[in-house]
Q: What sequence folds into this?
């Protein structure tokens, strides 16, 4: 009885291990390892603090809303004075896995990215110097920067370092698809699996692969057929200056794609069905049937992982000397 | 030894009990008793959901930011299309204790209040009908309304009922001053206690009393000396039509007042010192010395209680049929 039980266990392990989908083009997400918890906590506060904007109203979380898949679910974002943003806000979830940041990859990493929106007149509309002045006027922030960086001299480099360290924790493991990849055959349905097969067989996986199901290359939007849009963004060319890079954008991650509508750099696709149909046509020269599209969409919805799981941060109050925001100037 | 120990304990209890400040004009806050947890969870999601606004960008939490004392720390709020609000956003913390809602008390309770900003063109800019249509298009919300209300027919009454139920949990017990009231003599310093004594002796406590340290009466702003402001709000008169109610406003709670700057209905006082000085002059005919003001401010800072302590809510995604927000129309 005992031996039979051990044999059964070993057999089950072998089957499970043999089956685990290790040779798939998509890999499971590894949970974040937090090595600097105090820096993460500081970064979290900064991420949620609207005093990093001129108006005192817009925080990183306004457009990368962690209650909504790390995005704002708008075609393009709303910035200072209700400025209409030029491009769809990418999700911050799993963004640490990207080869570079922004649609055109102009920032090498999350730290380089974080300073951008703060100083962009159409986004947070502030300056790095004023952010530092604001933070230095708040005793509780001074204490926290000192604890984290060993000095109370705050500068924008420390601010963006802390924000990036927090953002690195925003990974979403344990999607049903990841469970399937790890050997749990029942984690996705036969229909969803058929969608995955079609996703691979149709060529989607050529760009959307790796643990982030994308995020690791720049590709031309409209490879087979020109992509029609009123959005003037020209993508990667703006960074490299090369004509060959016109309309090349970073391939977005499909992780949590169910939550990050609308889709594409111009936010033109409102639904996953629209996005899949358009991608099939302009990138692969395929006309997916409604049934095929539905299958792929069903697969894509298995990519939703564990969402951010932490307490709402409580921000330290301004002091009497903290400059007050000027939203209406 | 045993008897001595029991005697000492009894004695300590008697002293503690005898000392507990039961006859003070301010009473400790009672922690919220959550009797409808599912409704609170639904209300929390709705409170954080920017899809309750036309733009998809502004939630209840935008102006009653629970990371910042339940306020936006702006003179007046930013609304749809960057509309400049007419009056300072009061904190939502402990608002269930108020005799009525809004500065002029035009809403009887939190439920009546919650519907206001949603449909105000200068705030969330939406309509109740469109909010209901949006919510009904989201399967996870449908399920949750059904679980909470026993029917999947969503209406604005249920929406505001749930939001109010969540808001009722936003009380902030365990302020240092409350600990002092309950008998912990060391919970506040001698200096802070002197500030409290001055607060009482000067007459501040005539209006700022009860567990909410305010919130339980309407009083004229500028009782002794006319209050100068460019803000056209006339307060309670707009509700009652009585000339005697001109410039009467709900006395704000002083709970967490350290966090809810700037002060007054017009947000004109940037600091607690300014607020105390002005109040002394226009309400009490007193010219507080800087030392007196500092003492009262020190006391006021002992009124900061436990801040909201819950996980960031994760919102259910829109479905393909959910109408998309139109921030730029």
A:
């Amino acid at each position: 009885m005992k031996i039979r039980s051990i044999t059964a266990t070993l057999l089950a392990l072998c089957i499970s291990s043999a089956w685990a989908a290790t040779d798939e083009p998509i890999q499971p997400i590894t949970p974040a390892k937090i090595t600097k918890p105090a820096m993460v906590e500081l970064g979290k506060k900064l991420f949620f603090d609207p005093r990093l904007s001129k108006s005192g109203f817009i925080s990183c979380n306004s457009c990368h809303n962690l209650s909504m898949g790390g995005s704002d679910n708008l075609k393009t974002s709303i910035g200072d004075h209700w400025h209409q943003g030029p491009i769809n806000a990418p999700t911050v979830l799993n963004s640490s896995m990207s080869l570079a940041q922004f649609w055109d990859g102009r920032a090498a990493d999350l730290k380089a990215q974080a300073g951008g929106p703060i100083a962009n007149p159409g986004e947070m509309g502030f300056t790095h110097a004023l952010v530092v002045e604001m933070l230095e006027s708040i005793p509780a922030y001074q204490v926290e920067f000192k604890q984290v960086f060993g000095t109370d001299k705050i500068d924008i480099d420390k601010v963006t370092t802390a924000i990036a360290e927090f953002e690195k924790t925003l990974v979403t493991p344990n999607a049903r698809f990841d469970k399937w990849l790890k050997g749990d055959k029942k984690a996705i349905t036969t229909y969803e699996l058929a969608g995955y097969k079609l996703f691979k067989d149709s060529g989607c996986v050529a760009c959307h692969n790796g643990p982030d199901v994308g995020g690791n290359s720049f590709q031309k939007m409209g490879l087979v057929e020109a992509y029609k849009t009123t959005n003037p963004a020209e993508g990667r060319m703006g960074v490299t200056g090369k004509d060959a890079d016109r309309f090349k954008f970073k391939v977005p991650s499909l992780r949590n794609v169910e939550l990050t509508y609308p889709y594409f750099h111009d936010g033109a696709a409102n639904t996953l069905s629209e996005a899949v149909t358009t991608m099939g046509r302009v990138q692969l020269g395929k006309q997916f049937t409604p049934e095929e599209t539905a299958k792929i969409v069903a697969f894509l919805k298995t990519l939703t992982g564990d969402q951010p799981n932490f307490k709402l941060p409580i921000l330290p109050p301004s002091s009497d000397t903290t400059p007050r925001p000027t939203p209406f100037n």
Notes: The beta strands of chain A are 78-79, 83-84, 218-220, 248-250. Confidence is low (pLDDT under 50) at residues 10-18 of chain A. The first strand of chain A starts at residue 78 and ends at 79. Chain A has twelve helices and four strands.
